[in-house]
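wait is this the right file?? whatever heres the structure
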């Protein structure tokens, strides 16, 4: 089935790809084109699992569909290996922006960890500069096609290493020069945000925005630490906040839910959830609720008023796009065009931009959705 053909009759005739979108949770090293991996690997003499782009895409999808975040993360060894030079980083970043625009994205934030791209001799600063060069080249290429896109960097520290304060200072140093915010990523279970309290204290003192991976491979304690220790303004994934909800009864379409204190705080404070449906299935983040998209607590969270956003996480590993994720959700939960617009408005409101820029983004989304 083509991506814009729908089993949901409410979206018949609607091209989801053409709708304006906002992407908040999108990893650079998780969005490398398979053909680019093959070509860059050939330049450095790196062996790859397949030398055909389609076959390599199949390999990523198969390897990622493990039900384990730890196993899922191993696929990044290949993508990061071809992103160790200025040229490699620049090319991947440019293509990333072009792929976002082809997906209908008008504003995106790309997260990546500079500390993982130093094996070729680059400094942290040089790596960030290379990615920014690629982003700007991609924005220019999109502009030449009479489309507009803006992309900011979320400078990311790895939660299982000890460089978070150094990376936090790097992010602040590039404020106004490409960096939009800060994140921590990597193996979540056993590596709480509390381990990086010094970095988060520094970021807070500099009024620099933070999102934290939490509520994916670990549960409520991880989310609590992200909010308290990390002062996170958004939760990367955050899907396991649903563990703090107790469905007391269901009668037809009426569902009575009892909130825990943490879930009520996240809902009432409108802390955005960077949900990634396909990825959440692949990594087992929603294993408590089931193994199919229809089991994802996305709809429960949405209906209860949480600030849900839709994201791809890793385009290459999940072999997906924002268009595809929205279509899958629409078909699973019978969402209308108004629902899809609500997800984009939530994302626009959560973007690490000034109030004026967020208002402009919201207006672009409103104008781009049919009445």
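ok assuming it is, sequence goes like this
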């Amino acid at each position: 089935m083509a991506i814009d053909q729908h089993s949901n009759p409410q979206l018949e005739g609607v091209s989801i790809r053409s709708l304006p979108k906002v992407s908040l949770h999108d990893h650079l090293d998780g969005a490398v084109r398979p053909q680019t991996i093959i070509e860059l690997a050939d330049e450095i003499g790196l062996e790859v699992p397949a030398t055909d782009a389609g076959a390599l895409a199949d390999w990523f999808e198969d390897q990622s569909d493990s039900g384990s975040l730890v196993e899922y993360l191993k696929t990044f060894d290949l993508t990061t290996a071809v992103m160790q030079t200025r040229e490699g980083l620049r090319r991947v970043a440019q293509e990333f922006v072009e792929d976002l625009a082809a997906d209908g994205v008008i504003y995106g934030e790309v997260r990546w960890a500079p500390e993982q791209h130093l094996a070729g001799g680059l400094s942290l600063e040089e790596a960030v500069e290379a990615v920014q060069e690629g982003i700007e080249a991609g924005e220019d290429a999109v502009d030449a096609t009479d489309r507009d896109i803006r992309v900011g960097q979320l400078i990311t520290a790895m939660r299982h290493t000890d460089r978070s304060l150094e990376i936090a200072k790097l992010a602040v140093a590039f404020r106004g020069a490409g960096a939009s915010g800060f994140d921590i990523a990597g193996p979540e279970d056993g590596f709480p945000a509390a381990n990086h309290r010094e970095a988060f204290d520094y970021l807070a003192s500099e009024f620099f925005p933070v999102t934290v991976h939490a509520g994916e491979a670990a549960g409520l304690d991880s989310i609590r630490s992200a909010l308290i220790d990390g002062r996170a303004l958004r939760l990367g994934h955050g899907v396991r906040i649903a563990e703090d909800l107790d469905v007391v009864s269901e009668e037809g379409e009426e569902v009575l839910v009892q909130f825990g204190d943490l879930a009520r705080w996240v809902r009432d404070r409108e802390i955005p959830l960077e949900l990634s449906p396909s990825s959440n299935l692949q990594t087992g983040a929603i294993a408590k609720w089931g193994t199919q998209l229809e089991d994802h607590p996305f709809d429960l969270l949405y209906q209860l008023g949480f600030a849900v956003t839709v994201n791809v996480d890793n385009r290459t590993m999940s072999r997906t796009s924002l268009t595809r994720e929205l279509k899958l959700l629409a078909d699973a939960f019978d969402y209308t065009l108004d629902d899809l617009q609500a997800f984009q408005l939530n994302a626009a409101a959560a973007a690490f931009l000034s109030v004026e820029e967020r208002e402009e983004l919201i207006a672009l989304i409103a104008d781009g959705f049919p009445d």
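The two ends are 26 Å apart (CA to CA). so i think its the right one actually
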